[in-house]
Amino acid sequence: MRSIEGNAKTLDDPMQIPAIEIKGLTKSYGRVQALRGVDLEVRQVEIFGFLGPNGAGKTTAIRCMLDLIRPDGGELRVLGMDPRRQSVEVRERTGYLPGELSLYPNLTARGMLRLLNSLRRHRADPATIESLAERLALDLDTPIKNLSKGNKQKAGLLQALMHRPELLILDEPTLGLDPLMQKEVLQILREARAAGTTVFFSSHNISEVEEVADRVGIIRKGRVVEVLEPESLWDRSLRRVRVRFRKAVDPQRVAEAPGVTLLDGSDGTSVVLQVTGEMGGLIRVLAQLPVRDLETERPTLEEIFLALYRNDEED
Amino acid sequence: MGVIFLHTLNRMRGTMLGWGLSLAGVAILFMTFFEDIATQADTLKRLMQSYPPEVLALFGAIQDLSTPQGFLGMYFFSSMPLILGIFAVLAGSGLLLQDEEEGVLDLLLAHPIDRAQLFLGRLLGMMVVTAGILAIAFAGIALSTQWAGIDTAIVELAKSFITLYVQLFFLSAFSLMLSLLMPGRSTAAMTSGLLLFVAYFINSLSSEVESLRQAARFTPMHYYQGAQAIGEPLDWGSLLGLLGLGLVFLAVAWWRWRARDIRITGEGAWSWRGLLVRSRGSSA
Questions:
Q1: Which of A197-206, A216-225, B58-67, B209-218 has the lowest mean pLDDT?
Q2: Does A272 lie in the same domain as A212?
Q3: In terms of domains, do A230 and A290 share one?
């Protein structure tokens, strides 16, 4: 497996300047407030996952960083620069994958990359392009209109990575990819970080954020509600557990396990539980019972958010 | 800017060849009839005078079909502001918004080019393609007049094309401006197209309908010389006036473009339906 070697230039004092610094960022579209005062700091050379349900403001925040849209208020600095005044410099040192990727359908992937590379004054090395295309299993000579959604996404990833930027801003990078390719992309991101690149990526897939991110920012309704370690997100996250017993048991015995809420236990031979945090307590209780089968189900991100931030909702 | 300019040329080369060769073909076809029509010019003129004057006005004023100037004016240059105007409207309204509405602009502008480079590169590309269409059509007419042995000075013919080019510049600049002021490309193209047709008919009918003469002064076609430029001096006042107004349209377009939020999913867009709903809501 090849790795992304070398890296773009580093800042004079890389650890002092945050890769991305956002204070009180606001943006409205008419009556819709997309961002309601986002505060966020992404350190140099980390993988930062930006997690939020659909419509939370992830894409809007990302597009402000590249001066594609203009915020109504707040402060924003990318690699120590103002994206509005120094948009070309910011983009020079950044690789970006849009959430809704569109490419010219009549060009081949190679033609599209050639065009985009010419906008970067041919900074990308052809060998790097070939190497990444091989890793991503992308045929560069197929017209884009004939590529599947997953292959278009690979072309999008390739254009973001090909010039070895200092900062990668990726909006849902694994969208449309099969599980094996998702793993490969996450590996590429790890290698990029190892080579000195800061990776900022948005996702609504909690597993991939947990797998690769150093820190996670959670955005909800246009505000960053929390920045935390991925592990602590899991500690607080929810699982739905269905347990079937060989004979009827008292559901309350199971419900007394730590972090467990009984959702359904009417017939005694099966229970549906909601478990918050670690599963150890529940497993210890279940070990004393005649368990026939156990299924765990990860709730959707929306469900987790609803449980974690219910109080915000009520406020 | 060079990359954007070359890419624009590359994307529009099919359009350029299609329009240019079609117009050249039409011009060559007409010119092959010139000798026959010229010999029967008086008969044709009498026949045409029997038509209602309003109908004739739509084809331009009746001209002396025995001269190349009259023949070209009647059969080619009189309708060009309308025919090529459609190209100018579509090209102007789609210059920036086609890519935005297809989502590609989001990716292009994430690269190290500033908005000025994109705006100017594309504008320059469009104007070169427009010149290319006219150059192909001009070559068609020039060659066919030479083959037919028609005595027309190439420089005089070129003057007519210059006046046509300025018309197209004006129309494409106007459409570009509308595309950045209105909700979307199709609305801008539709509005510009409608105004183009209305302006063309007002200007054409104004020679017969006196009440339209004042209104015709506000149409760009009123300042179009076309075939009249053959053998006569160029009307520099009209040309510079149209160029100046076109530049004003471009300045407004640039002002809107600089401040624009690049759209990907319609955020920030407004629609006629949305406006109606809002106005009903506010009046309720």
A1: B58-67
A2: no
A3: no
What is the number of residues in chain A? 315
- For B116-142, how does the pLDDT look when each residue is reduced to its tens digit (9 = 90+)? 999 999 999 999 999 999 999 999 988
When CB atoms are compared, the residue of A87, A99, A116 closest to B114 is A87
At which of A179, A207, A234 does a domain end?
A234
User: A63 and B102: CB-CB below 8 Å?
Assistant: no
Task: Name the residue with higher pLDDT: B2 or B18.
Answer: B18
Does residue A55 lie within any of the structural domains?
Answer: yes
Q: Are A98 and B107 inside 8 Å of each other by CB? A: yes
Residues 109-128 of B with CB under 8 A from A: 109-114
Task: Examine the pLDDT at B107 and tell me if it is beyond 70.
Answer: yes
Q: Is the confidence metric ipTM above 0.85 for this complex?
A: no
Range of the domain at A91: 20-234
Do A255 and A225 lie in a common domain?
A: no
Position A149, amino acid: K
Q: Are A95 and A32 members of one domain?
A: yes
Q: How far, in Å, CA of A96 to CA of A197, rounded?
A: 13
Verify that A111 and A243 share a domain, yes or no.
no
A154 and A176 together in one domain: yes
Whether the CB-CB separation of B194 and B200 falls below 8 Å is answered with: no
Measured in whole angstroms, the distance separating CA B9 from the mean position of its chain's CA atoms is: 18
Identify which of A68, A89, A115 has the shortest CB distance to residue B106: A68
The fraction of chain B above a pLDDT of 90, given in percent, is 51
DSSP state letter for A232: H
CA dihedral A288, A289, A293, A299 (to 10 degrees): -80
Give residue A230's Cα distance to chain centre: 11
Total domains, chain A: 2
Residue A191 domain-assigned? yes
Q: Point out the least confidently predicted range of A78-82, A83-87, A245-249, A261-265.
A: A261-265
Residues A103 and A195 in one domain: yes
Does residue B254 register a pLDDT over 90?
yes
The DSSP annotation for B96-115 comes to THHHHHHTHHHHHTTSS--H
Please report, as a single letter, which amino acid is at residue A262: L
Provide φ and ψ at A148, rounded to 5°. -75, 170
- Give the domain-ending residue among A199, A217, A234: A234
Regarding whether A260 and A172 lie in a shared domain, the answer is no
Does residue A309 belong to any structural domain of this protein?
no
Cβ neighbors of B166 (< 8 A, separation 6 or more) are B239, B242, B243, B246
Residue B107 has its nearest CB partner, among A59, A87, A101, at A101
Interface probe for B, chosen from A33, A58, A60, A69 (most Cβ of B below 10 Å), is A69
Please give the mean pLDDT across all residues of chain B.
Answer: 86
